[in-house]
Every structure is written in structure tokens, then in C-alpha cells.
Amino acid sequence: MDKTENSQAEPQLPLLELVTKNGCHLCEDAVAVVDEVAGELGLPWHEVRIDGDAELTARYGEEVPVVLVDGVQRDFWQIDPVRLRGILARAMGRE
Length: 95
Hints:
- By secondary structure, the chain is of the alpha+beta class.
- The chain is built from 4 helices and 4 strands.
- Strand 3 and strand 4 (about 70-75) form a beta hairpin.
- Helix 2 (about 25-40) crosses helix 4.
- The two termini are about 30 Å apart.
- Residues about 1-5 have low confidence and may be disordered.
């Protein structure tokens, strides 16, 4: 049997973003949490800083740090690693 006949398409990895700003101690904590959880799941992520961006500051300025998964706000302020694992596992089709 040809390998391609029995293979299924790989699920699309969710886009994981952490919105932060300079001088934010909660943001520093969130970076550590997101890095740990994403690393466990083998998921890339990136940090988006609102500093100097009026639109992002207006949207997220009072809520940073903010976790976005596929563009949807999923958590903010204190990022809970257990909650984040569950959100990402579901988004990756692992639950």
C-alpha cells in the first residue's frame, strides 16, 4: 500500500501570541509561562509588544499580558499554565 493513501493531513498548528509591554512584571512572568507550556507542546510562539503602537495600546493596554490563540484573546493578566495547556491542547486537536 502506498504511504500517501493511508496518511492523514497534519493538523494546522495554532498561532500563539503573547501581547506585552516594557516594564510590566506580569508580562515577564507570562513570557516564562508561555515559553514553558509552548515548549512542552512543541509549539512555536511569538511576543507582540504594544509599546509605540497606538492601536495595540488602545486595544490591550489595560489587559497586558494577553494570550492570543489564532487571533482570539484566551487569557490576560496572570497567565495560568494549566488553563493554557488545555486551550492549546484543544487547538492542536490533542483532546
